[in-house]
Amino acid sequence: MAKTLPKTDVVIVGVGWAGGIIAAELTKAGLNVVGLERGKERKTEDYFMVHDELRYSMRYEMMQDLSKETITFRSHDNVRALPMRQYGSFLLGDGLGGSGVHWNGQTYRFLPYDFQIRSKTIERYGKDKIPADMTIRDYGITYDELEPYYDKFEKMAGISGEANPLGGKRSSEFPTPPMKKTPGIQMFTEAASKLKLHPYMMPAANLSENYTNPDGVARAACQYCGYCERYGCEYGAKADPVVTVIPVANKTGKFQIRTHSNVRRILHKGGKATGVMYIDVTTGEEIIQPADIVVVTSYVFNNVRLLLMSELGKRYDPSTGTGVVGANYAYQVVKGSAVGFFENKQFNTFAGAGSLGISIDDYNGDNFDHSDLKFIHGGVISLSQTGARPIQNNTVPAGTASWGPEFKKQSLHYANRTLAVGAQGSSMSFKQHFIDLDPTYKDTFGDPLMRITFDFREQDKELAKFLAERCNEIVKEMGADKVDFLKELGPYEIMSYQSTHNTGGVIMGAEPGTSAVNNFSQMWDADNVFVVGASSFPQNAGYNPTATVGALAYRAAEGILKYRQSGGLLV
Question: What's the domain of life for this entry (predicted)?
């Protein structure tokens, strides 16, 4: 029989960026908050002198154990989905801080177009520009309305950068200046300028200088060690929840973190949540935590899964297109890239940082005319110097043997003679792409796994090819002697890494018929449940999602405090 604990004001499911931000804001306002995290505790000291590529990059030290819980995947709904048994396309973080600990730190704001994509596309090109089975939606909030929350996130995290010349208006400058320009970044800047494009330094959660944020949290500047993605930062220079918002919540004395706590159900009655049921995975004990407000802030798949298993919200039915929970799954098109090989130039690419780079948005959003193109939206194009670690970086020209003397010779020759310009394309939502509960496979507790149904469509293939050609133009202008670039995008396959930017399933909108949450991340069907994260994106933009997740978390925290005072659905 489950043990029932004393009631708390708020229980948070998942203590990553969204959960940490909300915990900090609510406890500062005097609420008692319990944070349930299914992974282990983490602290900066865990990463002192641990630049171990084999342990972290290749053996996925910081990721979810797929033998205990994974996802299943299929490309369309008339085939059986199979479990993902080894990591490939994306990485599922585990532990306190979540994916916010092992991210690269690339912190773009979405474009104004992204929040009103359906209405703006129809306004410029007409309804026929949107395919009948494409289910893109406006967010129910505009960029201008969300801008103050972006600003708050950037100041908390100490984001380094400079204004995007083609982005939305800013209320203030970045709190810290851009990171250093390497020779490769300078080459990109000059080439893009010659092509009449608009380069700007990538917005970075890697501090360019020592910084103290508005909450009084002081952190040291980045050392350009090149160990960001898949690693915790030993300096605390990379903004993550463990070194920014979680300490603020802890300092109030009103935040209780329970690690190794796997939430299995949201308990509810009469249209309101009453708390959650979780398992203490160290003892196997089943525990009920009552709460006035339930905030779901875990990763995309678990947000959706928890609602489906708890029977909260209207389940999406792909055959009719009705229902909302599980709808509008989207990913990212990140295969539009070009690699330049330079015979007479060498670069110190072993040094770097997760978000050290230069970008252009000339081909992102609706910043260019799509009238004669077979796709909408676009993507950011960047040259990033994230640190070429030795095991995973063996770039050789196309046509080189994949093993043997020729491979070794070319690997050594081009070890410091390559630069890559990559495109991160948007992902539009379609009726056929969704997340639901797998009818066959279960986790270690006997609960069904999440099932993804997704494949690249003509929209994605045309977009990837277009962006790859633009990358090729830039690399050629940079003076590369040889350029390899994507010629055609094949079917989506789950084994080669692309990005961890999964989105959708609990989407945001202005009305309950086509969305699961309002623009405060409050569920239409249970007003004391807030679901925060990239699960609320109705489609994915041509950027990394974290800054938008952070901004929506600050807005949700504001909404929770309003709800606490007055109750009911927020407007």
Answer: Bacteria
CB 547 within 8 A of CB 107: yes
In the chain, the amino acid numbered 329 is: Y
Phi, psi of 113, rounded to the nearest 5 degrees = -55, -35
pTM (two decimals): 0.97
**Structural domains of the chain ordered from first start:** 3-43+58-566 (3.50.50.60)
pLDDT tens, residue by residue, 428-481 = 999 999 999 999 999 999 999 999 999 999 999 999 999 999 999 999 999 999
- How far does the chain reach from its first CA to its final CA, in angstroms? 40
**522 - beta bridge partners?**
530
Three-point CA angle 430, 309, 526, nearest 5°: 85
pLDDT tens-digit readout, 131-160: 999 999 999 999 999 999 999 999 999 999
Side chain identity, residue 450: M
* Side chain identity at residue 220, one-letter code: A
Per residue in 488-504, pLDDT (tens digit) is 999 998 888 899 999 99
Which residue reads 């379609």 in tokens?
Answer: 430
The length of the chain, given as a count of residues: 571
Degrees to nearest 5, angle at CA 173 with 172 and 178: 165
Kindly name the residue from 268, 377, 433, 501 that is annotated as catalytic.
501
Integer Cα distance of 387 and 341 in angstroms: 17
Q: At what angle do helices 17-28 and 546-566 cross, to 10 degrees?
A: 40
- CA angle (494 as vertex; 358, 326 as ends), nearest 5: 95
Distance, in Å, from the CA atom of 545 to the CA atom of 541, rounded to the nearest integer, reads: 8
H helix runs in 206-359, sequence order: 245-251, 300-310
pLDDT digits (tens, 9 = 90+) for 374-419: 999 999 999 999 999 988 888 999 999 989 999 999 999 999 999 9
Dihedral (Cα; 368, 458, 501, 152), 10-degree rounding: 30
Burial class (CB in 10 A: 0-12, 13-18, 19+), 343: exposed
Distance CA 39, CA 325 (A): 25
CA 374 to chain centre: 26
Count of CB atoms within 10 A of residue 4's CB? Answer: 12
CA 252 to chain centre: 29
Q: What is the pLDDT of residue 334?
A: 84
Contact call for residues 423 and 261 (beta carbons, < 8 A): no
Average pLDDT, the chain: 96
Residue 336 predicted with pLDDT over 80: no
